[in-house]
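WARN no homologs supplied; continuing
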Amino acid sequence: MSQGIALTGMVLVAAPAGDYDKRVVLLTKERGKITAFARGARRQNSTLLAAASPFSFGTFRLYEGRTAYTMVQADISNYFQELKSDFEGTCYGYYFMEFADYYGRENLDASDMLNLLYATLRALENQKLDNRLVRYIFETRMMVINGEYPQDIVEDTTLLESTRYTISYIIQAPTRKLYTFLVKPEVLNEFARIQDRFRRTYIDHKFKSLEILETMLA
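OK structure emitted
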């Protein structure tokens, strides 16, 4: 193993490995999406028990092996406990993390993706925001970051002017400003139809968490 490194990131996925370990997928600022093993993290007295769980955000100290990392320590700044107590919010959160997992790549700077994911989970905790709006803002911006969003949609004059303005704002605004507005129902519905079409057209992947979310909402 090489010398230990400290990475800022969030746990996207956690699964049992062996009798007492966990295999986690982290989205990290410095190295993109990586896989790590947290030894003994399923033991009740493990210092990694809570850290090696989805939604955990903070600084992770790891050793780098040939095929995976080993998590040895974590300083978690946000577990998103408030979000976890809200069933609908949790379902949205798992979908957003699966979305980030889909786009995540190893050895790439994931600062923008990580910042967006963090801001989005914080937005889910804001009771004043419509979760549907949060969802479509997140999807749009994630596709923009990864170069898969057809930005000429803002020139489509068949759309409501407010919808075009909303999409243009989401494309360009700083991450910290993304979840600072509300829209009228007719704008949200049109925005939703557009984004649903774009997701199906440009993303060749079925998100299991989205199926669960949509079943729950129905």
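The chain has a mean pLDDT of 96.
OK
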